[in-house]
Every structure is written in C-alpha cells, then in structure tokens.
UniProtKB/TrEMBL annotation, chain A:
Key words of the record: Membrane, Protein transport, Transport
Entries under Gene3D superfamilies matching the protein: 1.25.40.60, 3.40.50.1910, 3.40.50.2060, Syntaxin Binding Protein 1, Chain A, domain 2 (3.90.830.10)
Position of the signal peptide: none
Membrane topology designation: Peripheral membrane protein
Region ranges (Disordered): 558-578
Chief place where the protein resides: membrane
Any one biological process term the GO annotation gives: vesicle-mediated transport
Name used for this protein in its record: Vacuolar protein sorting-associated protein 45
Organism: Linnemannia schmuckeri
GO cellular component entries: cytoplasmic vesicle; endomembrane system
UniProtKB/TrEMBL annotation, chain B:
Coiled coil (residue ranges): none
Organism of derivation: Linnemannia schmuckeri
Annotated stretches, region: Disordered: 321-355
InterPro entries listed in its UniProt record: SNARE, Syntaxin, T_SNARE_dom
Protein name, per record: t-SNARE coiled-coil homology domain-containing protein
Keyword Transmembrane tagged: yes
Taxonomic placement: Eukaryota, Fungi, Fungi incertae sedis, Mucoromycota, Mortierellomycotina
Keywords noted in UniProt: Coiled coil, Golgi apparatus, Membrane, Protein transport, Transmembrane, Transmembrane helix, Transport
Compartments in which it is found: Golgi apparatus membrane
Biological process terms in GO annotation: intracellular protein transport; vesicle docking; vesicle fusion
C-alpha cells in the first residue's frame, strides 16, 4: 500500500527489462507521473540516456538506440505513436501503456508496424500521480480541466473517464480488488463507484489476485460534504507550502520571492528524494523552525570542519565527505529559503490572526465573538482580500442556519472595503456548492443535541494548539469505518455486497479534490493504527485558491452570471439569510 | 503491481497484417516473374542473368541503413564499462591482499608489499584512464551536429562520471581503512619498542650480558627498518589518494546534483524543448541576419558602383574636357597651323620685307 514504491517498481521494471542504451519517450501525462517518483540520475543509472516527448516531431534518427515508450493510451498518444512507427527513429520499440489499451488500438498499431520494430507491448498501471506514499492524485488542474458537467452534481465526460482510469490504475498497481462504498447523497460519488465496480467486473482476469482475509474497502467521498477543510489556513510544512505558495507536481515556484538566488527560483519538494523533507513535512511551523535551526547548526559544524584543512587526514576526510556535504548545503539553503519565505508570507498576510478566527469559526460555537473579530479583520488593511472573502465564506457556512446571522451586513462591509463584485460572488457559488442542504453529515456537530454535547465535551478537554485544532471530517468517517459503525444507509456498498469484518486496507477517494491537511491526517492514522492501512486520493490536491477556482470555473461554464446576480439582488434587498 | 502483456496479441495482429503484406509482395514478385518469363520467352535470352538481377534488386531494398551505426563515442561507454569492471576485480584483489598483509606473520613481506603497491598504482592508473575516456566523449560528440545527440552524449558523460565516482569513493574508503589499520600496527610496534628500549638500556649497563644486547639491538634495527618501510608505504598510499582526489574533483563538475531541479525528468525534457525552440529562433534570426547581410552587401556594392561611376563621371569627362577639348583647339590650331605655317612664311616674308 505504497503509491510511490508501486510506481517506482513499474519504472524500474520497464527500464531493466530492456537492456542497453535506450531512449525514453513520454507523453504530456506520463512525464509528470514519472518525474514525481524518479530522477534523472536514476534513469541514467539504467542506461536511459535520452528522455523526450513523443509529441516532439524534430527528433533525430538514432537507429542504434532502443526505445522505451511509456504512454497513456489516449487517442492523441496512440496517433503520435502510429506516426512514430511509420517512420521509426530508433531501432527497437518497447511499448508500455499506463492503462488498459483497447484491442482496436493494438490492432491499429500492429497494422502500422510495417518495419516490425515493436518488440514488446505491455500494460503497466502507473496512471496516477503519487505525492506521498499514502497520498495520490489524478492531477486535474482546475485551471485547465473542468471537473463538473452541467452542475455540481454531474461529471464532465473526459474528467470522469480520466478519474475512472486513474482509480483502476491505482487498484491494479496495488493489487486490490475492493468492496466499494460511496457517499449516498453525492451523485458523482455514486456514479464513480458504480463505474469502477463495473470495470472491475469487466476485467475479471486482471483482478484475479490472491484473496486477502478481509477485502479492502474503496470509499468514495465527495468534497461537497466538507467544504470547510480546503478553506482553512494550514500550519504544517507540506500543507503550508501548498496553501501559501503552491506545489505543482512536486515543484515549487519561488520566482516571486524577493532577492531569490537564481538556482532557487524553482525547487523540488519530494518526500521520496529529500529525507529532511520527509521527516518534517507534517510538523507545524514552530517545530519546523526549531528543526531548521538544528539543521543549519549541523551544516555549520560541517562547514567549519571543512574550513580548517590542516593535515592530510583533514583533506582526505574533506574529499570523502564532499558529495554528502554538497548535497547537504544545497538542501539546507533550499529549506531555509522556503521556511523564510513562509514566515514572510505569514507576517505579510497577518495569517496568524486570520487563522485563529478561521479555526474558531470551524471548530467552536461563539457567534458574537467571531462576528466581532470578523468585522475587525475585514476592516483591517493588513489582511489580504482573499483571506477576507475566505473568512466570510467560513462564517456563512458555519452560521447558515443560525437565526440572525449577519451575512448580509458582512457582504456590505466587504463592498465598503473595496472588494470587487466578482470576488464577492464566489460566496454565493460556495453556498450553492456546499451549503448545509448539500451536505450529508453534520459537519459542525451542531445539528443534534447529541453531537452538540459531544463537541462540548471535546471543548472541555481543551486544545493543544489553537491553529491546528480543526480535524477534517474525513477523520470522523474513518473512525466510524474502523469501528464498523459507519452506517450503510449513508455510505452504502455498491450492488449490495457487504462485509462484516473490520477492514484492513482502506482506500479513500475524494471527488472534488483532497487536501494536504487530510493527507497529513491519513499519514498520522497510518502511524497510529496498527492493523489498518490507509491511502488517500483525490481528483486533485486543493489549496483554498485552487478550490475556489474550481468552483468558480464550474459556475462560469454552467450557469453564467447567475452567481453575481443573486448576490446583487440579495444586497439590494438587504439582510436576507443566505 | 499487476502488469499485463499484450505482446502476443500484438504479434498476432501484426502477423496477420504482415501476412497480407507478404502476400501482396509475393503477388508482385510473381507478376514480375511472369513478365520476365514473357520477356525471356520473347527474347529467348539467358534466364539466369535475369533472376540474378532480380535477386540483387531485392537485397538492395533491404540493405542496412547507415543510420544504424552508432556515433563513435558509444564505444567509449563500453570501454569505460570494461575498465570499471577491471577496477572492480582489482579492488577486490587488493582488498584480499590488504587483509592478508595485516595479519601477523613471520615470512618475508617485501614481495607482498610490492604487489600491493603495484596493484594500487594500477588501479589509480585505471581511474585516470577512465577519466580521460570520459573527457574524450566531449571532444568526440562535438563533431556531431545534431542537438539531441549532444544532449545524449552529455547524459552519457554524467552517468559514467557518476559510476566512476562511486567506484573511486569505494576504493578510497578501502585505502583509508587499510591505512588506519597500518597506523594501528605501527603504533603497536612503537609501544613494543618503548617497552623494549628501557629494558635494553638497563641491560646494556650490565657488561656481563653484552651478547644479549647485541641481539636486542639487531632486533631494534630491524624494527626501525620496518618502520621506515611502513612510513614509505603510507606515503605512497596517501599519494594515490591525492591523485584520486584530483580525478574526483574533475568528475564532480560533471555529476548532477541530486535533489535539485536539474535532477527532475520533466525539467530536463522542458529544457530540451526550450533549447530546441531557442535553436529554431536563433536559426531564424541567423537567416534574417544573413538576408540582411546579403541586402547590405548588394547595397554596398551598388553604392560602390555609384561612387565609382561618379568618380568616372568626375574624372573621365574632365580628362576628356581638359585634355580633350584643350587639345582639340590646339589640334585645330595645329591643324590650322600647319597649313598656315606654310602660308605664313609665304605671307610673312612679303610682309617683312616691306618693314
């Protein structure tokens, strides 16, 4: 149950199965898939001396090379491959597809292979993006792809097939034939779950794995049930970098940082290749600062010992330690720069204060106090516009059903503070997406007396850290699932298959995108729960920006103009509950 | 980590297609054959020559393309790999010898030490040789014009450098541990001497036991000899370590820094396409410049021509104006004169005499 090693296994296998000097051809999707789990030097070790895109038409002819093609079996890639086979640049071709390839496609390829250069055709199910060992994504960038069809309840066609393919790839690569449960209220989750089930049955032979004692569970959830988590400010390393700067396929763009050195304009954050990051990715900023300091100290002592080279022995030691030292120095400057930038952004955006209010809105029931703070922060010039909107969004979600909430007056206040109508209309979009009528579970534990009592009890215990007290709703669902108390009425199995055993392997898939807060939660759960393994996936990994972007995009493409209209009408009427 | 092979299915399809291809070819061949037979029947020429020609033409179609030949530096990869294999064997041998040498023993060690020395030298030389070879790739690949081949040769260089570096690190570590253990032996020996010396001196005070001292002294001298010998060995080893360090520094510039963006696959692919775009852009620019230069050349030529013509215009007419019209009257004069001259004397004499 490790997404990264599964993909690495595939890559190693395809490169070692073809001995000799070779070139690796990739397409737009397999390039980042491979890049996230393997490095250039790793490929070089396997005698892969050239990596190129299949789309690149100006490749030179080098018939002495073997060619390993690793492609997604999309019509585009197959077309490109056919062109390549008609006029082959290389000697032998070894074709690997990242998913199940249709027979007709194989037939076409065979037909076009007039030079008989193809030696091997294989399916290697590396069709998803492994971020952490227990976290993967389908990488649907809200900037370029739309997840939703006509409304928030229907899939976009291509996104749907991509997601099904990705999930099938994950199941095959981990050798799991799961029982599938889904969130009942979500039409998208249901459709995905039934489709995956259908495909598993179609590919009966492929899924003929050794039976485990208890069948693994694939739990398909919908982001709509918990719109709060992606809106919160984050304080743990990985999540924070994603929230404040943005991680894209393991790369972080630092070119916006003032006075940045040219070699640090873009950096790599990979828990697989960077052991320091792996150790610290789930720590909060405070602990991280302390750790960074000791890291720098370690570096300094090493530099000092390298500085005074007096004897031959010193010199020898220096030469020996040099590669290690170089690596360390690169890594130290990377992390120091990154953490420095994080703390700069925190100061700049007044994130501490904002986050405190966010957590209070998300976790505790104190309307008057929160409202007062909220009004103060909206008027404050130090808080960024995006944070202001986010706070009002959280407030609106939280006190949607509260008699006498002040959403309308807050909207007025936003207008007064110079926010544009387009920005404010996102509030409406969010309420349509994740308002209480759209949610299945009691997100804020305030709907029944029982849950109120529970949350009050929790409040009595006190919190360790004000900024990280929020626990994603995913936590409750998994807790119930482990205790076998997750209601089948709310989370039914597909086609009535049931299981009475406590599940051991649980794959959670979040339609509409997971977050790094949840990824951290899953990782903690993996560490603390003996006998159960979890892996979390999502159509993408969201931060607050990309989350809202996705919603706005869906809104724009489906029902244009409606959002802003309703806000305006509401504003003119004044004081009507959202 | 399930996989599924579709090779068989693919081959099946391909065979069925290539079957139809082959059938088509056969048909073509038959037709040709028939034509030949007809022509041979008509011409009643020797059939053998014709079939032979057909055969030759067929084989010409399937000749090996020149593209199949790898660039020259590919051989270097094999050479370096061979060298590394040899180094590996040698290092193993050396390791065994080190171990044997460090064991206490009574027999003569000089031969052994020489062997170790020789082998160490050999390994260092081998490292040098592989380093030189890796550098040669650079020189060789510079000849090739294609962009991708250059990228590839650079990658090959990197990977070989990495390999050699790994091997050299291993070798250095082995040398180091050996040296430390040698030092340990030396120290132990020194301890023994320092223990021996006082006894020695106390004994030599006693004149009665002089014979004993002689033996002791001989032992001490011998030990001194071994110490200097060891010293030499250690120096020798550190020399070879230094040489390796040189190689190491050299290679370090070629190896990728792991964990940086340079080690990302997608980054490199992007870079390649960026380079390509740059190259295309530069080519375009170059063409533009060339065109411009051509235009300029023409303009310059025209200007020169104009200037030249001007010069011609200024000088030539003057040449003709000054000397030409000038001599013209002169010539007229001279033309006039000669007839007048004969006239003049004829005229003047009659004028003069009256004066």
């Amino acid at each position: 149950m490790n997404a990264i090693t599964a993909l690495q296994f595939y890559i190693d296998k395809m490169l070692t199965d073809t001995p000799g000097m070779k070139v690796l051809l990739l397409d737009t999707e397999t390039t980042p898939i491979i890049s996230m789990v393997a490095t250039q030097s790793h490929l070089l070790q396997k005698e892969t001396y050239l990596v190129d895109r299949i789309e690149n038409n100006s490749r030179d002819k080098m018939r002495h090379l073997k060619c390993v093609c690793f492609l997604r079996p999309t019509t585009d890639s197959i077309e490109k491959l056919i062109q390549e086979l008609r006029d082959p640049c290389y000697g032998d071709y070894y074709l690997y597809f990242s998913n199940r390839i249709k027979k007709t496609a194989i037939e076409r390829l065979a037909e076009m292979d007039e030079h008989e250069v193809v030696r091997e055709v294989q399916e290697f199910y590396a069709d998803y993006y492994a971020i952490n060992p227990d976290c993967f994504s389908i990488n649907m960038d809200p900037e370029t792809t739309s997840l939703y069809g006509d409304s928030f309840t229907s899939w976009d066609g291509t996104s749907f097939t991509r997601t099904v393919d990705g999930l099938m790839g994950l199941l095959l690569s981990l050798k799991k034939k799961p029982l599938i449960r889904y969130q009942k209220q979500s039409a998208m989750a249901k459709r995905l779950a039934t489709e995956v089930q259908f495909q598993i049955q179609q590919e009966g032979q492929l899924f003929d794995f050794r039976k485990s004692d208890t069948p693994p569970i694939l739990l398909v959830l919908d982001r709509r049930n918990d719109p709060v988590t992606p809106l919160l400010s984050q304080w743990t390393y990985q999540a924070m970098v994603h929230e404040l700067i943005g991680i894209r396929n393991g790369r972080v763009d630092l070119s916006g940082v003032p006075d940045i050195k040219p070699e640090l304009k873009e950096i790599v954050l990979s828990c697989d290749q960077d052991s320091y990051f792996q150790k610290n990715m789930f720590l909060n900023l405070g602990d991280l600062g302390a750790n960074i300091k000791s890291y720098v100290d370690e570096y300094q002592t090493k530099t000092k010992s390298n500085m005074n080279i007096e004897s031959i022995a010193d010199m020898k030691r220096f030469v020996e330690d040099y590669p290690e030292f170089r690596k360390l120095s690169g890594n130290v400057s990377k992390h120091v720069t990154l953490v420095g930038e994080l703390s700069r952004l925190v100061d700049q955006g007044n994130v501490l204060e904002v986050s405190e209010l966010e957590q209070s809105l998300a976790c505790s029931d104190s309307h008057n106090n929160d409202l007062k703070n909220l009004q103060r922060l909206i008027s404050s010039p130090k808080v960024s516009d995006a944070s202001k909107i986010r706070l009002v969004q959280l407030y609106a979600l939280r006190y949607e059903k509260f008699q006498g909430n002040a959403v309308a007056s807050l909207i007025d206040l936003l207008y007064k503070n110079g926010l544009s109508e387009r920005e404010i209309s996102t509030l409406d979009t969010l309420m349509q997406y994740g308002g209480s009528s759209q949610r299945q579970d009691d997100l804020f534990s305030n709907e029944s007396i029982l849950s109120r009592g529970r949350s009050a009890l929790k409040g009595l215990k006190g919190v360790e850290n004000v900024y990280t007290q929020h626990q994603p709703q995913l936590g409750q669902i998994l807790e119930l699932l482990l205790k076998m108390r997750l209601k089948e009425a709310n989370y039914p199995f597909v086609e009535g298959s049931t299981s009475r055993d406590r599940p051991q392997d649980i794959i959670v898939f979040m339609v509409g995108g997971a977050t790094f807060e949840e990824a951290r939660y899953i990782s903690m759960l993996n560490a603390t729960t003996p006998g159960a393994r979890f892996i979390l996936g999502g159509t993408t990994i969201h931060n607050s920006r990309s989350f809202m972007q996705e919603l706005v995009r869906a809104q724009r493409t489906t029902i244009p103009g409606q959002g802003s209209d309703s806000v305006r009408s509401r504003r003119t009427q004044g004081g009507i509950q959202l | 980590m399930a996989t599924r092979s579709r090779t068989l299915l693919f081959l099946q399809f391909r065979n069925s297609y290539s079957g139809s291809h082959a059938a088509a070819i056969r048909q073509q061949y038959n037709q040709q054959q028939q034509q030949h037979q007809q022509s041979s029947l008509l011409a009643t020429s020797d059939g053998y020559g014709d079939t032979e020609r057909v055969g030759l033409m067929d084989s010409a179609e399937t000749t090996i393309e020149l593209m199949m030949l790898p660039p020259k530096w590919v051989d270097i990869v094999d050479e370096v790999d061979d060298e590394l294999e040899k180094i590996k064997v040698n290092v193993q041998k050396l390791d065994a010898m080190h171990k044997k040498h460090l064991l206490p023993g009574f027999d003569d060690r000089i031969q052994e030490e020489r062997d170790i020395e020789r082998l160490t030298d050999e390994i260092t030389q081998q490292f040098h040789a592989s380093q030189r070879r890796i550098k040669r790739i650079n020189a060789e690949s510079r000849h090739s014009s294609s962009n991708q081949e250059q990228i590839m040769s650079r990658n090959v260089q990197m990977s070989l450098a990495q390999k050699v570096q790994d091997a050299s690190t291993l070798f250095r570590q082995k040398q180091n541990t050996y040296m430390q253990r040698m030092r340990g032996v030396e120290l132990r020996n020194k301890d023994i001497f320092s223990a021996v010396q006082p006894i020695n001196s106390s004994i030599s005070d006693d004149p009665e036991e002089g014979g004993f001292t002689g033996a002791q002294q001989a032992f001490a001298e011998q030990s001194n000899a071994t110490i200097t010998q060891r010293e030499q060995e250690i120096n020798h080893i550190s020399k070879s370590i230094f040489q390796l360090a040189d190689i190491f520094k050299d290679l370090q510039t070629m190896v990728i820094d792991q964990g940086t963006l340079l080690d990302r696959i997608d980054f490199n692919v992007e870079q390649a396409s960026v380079h390509l775009q740059d190259a295309v852009y530069e080519l375009d620019e170059g063409e533009k410049y060339q065109k411009k230069a051509r235009n300029r050349k023409i303009i310059l030529l025209l200007i020169l021509l104009i200037v030249g013509l001007f010069i011609v215009l200024i000088f030539k007419p003057r040449h003709r104006n000054d000397p030409a019209p000038a001599p013209a009257p002169e010539s007229e004069k001279s033309h006039d004169l000669p007839p007048s001259q004969p006239v003049d004397p004829s005229v003047q004499p009659p004028v003069a005499p009256p004066q």
